[in-house]
Design goal:
This protein has 2 domains: about 110 residues, Type 1 dockerin domain (Orthogonal Bundle), CATH 1.10.1330; about 110 residues, no CATH class. Helix content is about 30%, strand content about 10%. It has 8 helices and 5 strands. Strands 1-2-3-4-5 form a 5-stranded antiparallel β-sheet, with no helix packed on it. Strand 4 and strand 5 form a beta hairpin. The longest helix has 20 residues. The protein is elongated.
């Protein structure tokens, strides 16, 4: 065990020595976390430069110091920047470069959903497949009283007693079932409130609940990019039921 540990430490020392001896690409420094050499990206060059700064082989300007300081401040979670540039910052950048840390752990910014259209610019084939799946059809808006269009299915009508003008959104409607949100964004309940596509029949959905009392709070688990808010909102489309 002792021999194994000695070899392990020796290997890390050799890696550090190689990194220190590698040439460092320089460009105009930018105040971007992780982009220590200012070339517009975070890569091995930034790892090398951060390590050299940490051990005193390179004198950095303030922008480079700010960019290299990527360790979380103690006791405050993901906020990046503890005011020091140390070997731990270089290690953290190296972990990002090799894919062991997400970008948000370097920049301190929360990761956000940018939307399927943005993803399609690089992943067009996957986007086309996703567009034909049920995922983007989880919650479909009714616009100008016209029912949503689905790639492989159809919801013939809203529940009995309602018109499409009374419906703000359709939940689902692709492959399995459809439920409906009323004018205030509440899920319509009743003896025939859910349409099952496979059998083309209407069935009960929480018939014991009075109309206008069942909020739509399913998005947290079933919708990408959902932002949860409190009972006072803000609400999607200013509908109190969502």
């Amino acid at each position: 065990m002792l021999r194994f540990r000695s070899l392990h430490v020796t290997a890390w020392v050799l890696v550090a020595m190689v990194l220190l001896l590698l040439p460092v690409p320089y460009a105009q420094a930018r105040p971007l976390k992780g982009d220590v050499n200012g070339d517009g990206r975070v890569d091995l060059g930034d790892v090398i430069l951060t390590l050299r700064i940490a051990v005193g082989l390179t004198t950095a300007n303030q922008e480079q110091l700010d960019a290299a300081d990527v360790s979380p401040y103690p006791g405050v979670g993901r906020i990046v920047g503890d005011g020091l540039v140390q070997v731990s910052d270089a290690v953290r950048l190296l972990r990002f470069v090799v894919g062991l840390l997400p970008l948000g752990e370097i920049t301190g910014e929360a990761l956000v959903y940018v939307g399927s259209e943005r993803c399609a610019t690089c992943h067009s084939s996957a986007h086309q497949d996703e567009a034909k799946s049920g995922h983007p059809n989880k919650l479909r808006k009714v616009i100008d009283g016209q029912p949503p269009k689905y790639p492989f299915s159809e919801v013939p009508s809203p529940p009995e007693g309602y018109t499409w003008q009374d419906i703000t959104y359709v939940i689902g409607g692709y492959g399995w079932k459809a439920r409906f949100l009323d004018k205030k964004g509440y899920i319509i309940t009743g003896a025939k409130a859910q349409y099952n596509l496979a059998t083309k029949s209407w069935v009960a959905y929480e018939a014991d609940k009075a109309p206008g009392t069942k909020p739509y709070d399913c998005g947290e688990c079933h919708t990408t990019g959902w932002k949860k808010t409190g009972p006072d909102g803000p609400h999607q489309d200013n509908l109190p039921g969502i």
